[in-house]
Amino acid sequence: MTDADASRRFTAIYDAHHRQVYAYAVSRAGREHADDVVGDTFLVAWRRLDEIPATPLPWLLGVARNVGRERYRDEVRQSALATELRAWVREADEDVAEGVADRAAVLVALARLTEDDRELLTLTAWHGLSARDAARVVGCSTATFFVRLHRARKRLREGMSDAQQVDRQPARTTLAEEYSR
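RESULT FIELD:
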């Protein structure tokens, strides 16, 4: 491959997938680190251009996943993800009155999940990957991915049920609080 061909191929891959890689990086590392993860991901892509398959997105997301783990292994990303999810849910929710309790339950349930469970759910729900492509990103077989996704969804449902039950409990006040109103 000539330098011009390599440059054209890289540019085409970048133009087609930059936004998706950026969205994935935000969900994994937060906005403050997403640019670094994306930059490093595409640097790896340039250096390993001949290894990129015909369907590059799963490969790119796998690289982004590894880059994020290497660079930010010790940082807690849970609060950044919850903040992003709150913003996304707020924008997407048309029926505010009914959605408030559901949103809160989802956020609480997602925050309680492990990072791996959140990743499985966001790869398919937010990033729109097929199970096969998402399995490539996390480095497992499609069958294993389906099992893990099923379990993550079950834990999310259970967490939402728990969060909604707590939300529906009447607020308890002391006599002193009642008289001070």
